[in-house]
Automatic annotation (TrEMBL):
One term of GO molecular function: oxidoreductase activity
PROSITE patterns, per database record: ADH_SHORT
Protein name: Putative Short-chain dehydrogenase reductase 2a
InterPro entries: NAD(P)-bd_dom_sf, Sc_DH/Rdtase_CS, SDR_fam
Gene3D superfamilies: NAD(P)-binding Rossmann-like Domain
Phylogenetic lineage: Bacteria, Bacillati, Actinomycetota, Actinomycetes, Kitasatosporales
Length: 272
């Protein structure tokens, strides 16, 4: 799909991958609603992009765990630019490490990393089916394919995000709804280093697991990969090519992979 002249919503747009996506979409001629829980960050990104591409973005502060606030994003896009063509479910949180995660941690992670995608799709897909087209881009993680050392809430909800994106594609892919699922490893964002700053051994191991497994990419590199995949209407977006081989190895011998992950975790914890 060519994104030029399309109307896009990018959640988690105030920093990291979301910020890079908003900038790249605008550069390609899309009109973008930049949404973030931090309204000031969203506004700063919008102003930065508009300085180069006047009028190409608007910003809004929104909590995407709330259906009414997602509806507000859609309404803002429609009233400012027109019907939403592209939705980037990019907002995400890391969650507490290990079994120390409480009920509120689980609820928040499920709401942001999974239910926000479901709620957005419920609002948008009916209209896309009527129009015969639409594009849903889910930001999951390599942790959604390979599991994350440290944070159960992150690993579980990212697996679920991948599964929901697959289900969307299977169910509506022949009716004009395009779906892509982004599964990067290390990206130079605040979220990547949240485990290192957690004060918890498993949290530190989580960050080190990612930073030692492959290159840490810049958000702009990831945005480039996303746009290239959308042009080809490709489902799985893997900015780190090694993830595909790791995924194949996991599927070919699950028990061997689990043993290897346990050894890897032990080596990481020994460094803390």
């Amino acid at each position: 799909m060519d994104v030029a002249q399309r109307v896009a919503v990018v959640t988690g747009g105030g920093a990291g991958i979301g910020r890079a996506l908003a900038a790249r979409l605008a550069r390609e001629g899309a009109r973008v609603v930049v949404a973030d829980l931090d309204a000031d960050s969203a506004r700063a990104v919008s102003e930065e992009v508009n300085a180069d591409r006047p009028g190409s973005t608007v910003s809004v502060g929104a909590d995407v765990s709330d259906t009414e606030q997602i509806q507000r994003l859609v309404d803002l896009a429609e009233s400012t630019f027109g019907p939403v063509d592209l939705y980037f479910a990019n907002a995400g949180i890391a969650g507490a490490p290990g079994l120390d995660a409480g009920e509120q941690d689980w609820d928040r992670s499920i709401d942001v990393n999974l239910r926000a995608h479901i709620r957005a799709a419920k609002l948008l897909v009916p209209g896309w089916l009527e129009r015969g087209e639409g594009y849903f881009v889910s930001t999951a993680s390599a942790a959604g394919l390979l599991t994350q050392v440290g944070s159960a809430t992150y690993a579980v909800t990212k697996h679920a995000a991948v599964a929901f994106a697959e289900w969307l594609s299977v169910t509506y892919g022949d009716r004009g709804v395009r779906v892509s699922c982004l599964c990067p490893m290390g990206v130079n964002t605040k979220l990547l280093f949240s485990g290192e700053d957690s004060g918890d051994a498993l949290g530190r191991a989580a960050t080190r697991a990612v930073t030692s497994a492959g290159d840490v990419l810049e958000p702009a590199d990831v945005a480039d990969a996303v746009l290239a995949a959308m042009e080809d209407e490709r489902f799985l977006i893997l900015p780190h090519e090694d993830v595909l081989e790791m995924y194949r190895q996991k599927g070919s011998d699950y028990d061997r992979w689990l043993r290897g992950m346990r050894r890897y975790q032990s080596s990481l914890l020994a460094q803390t």
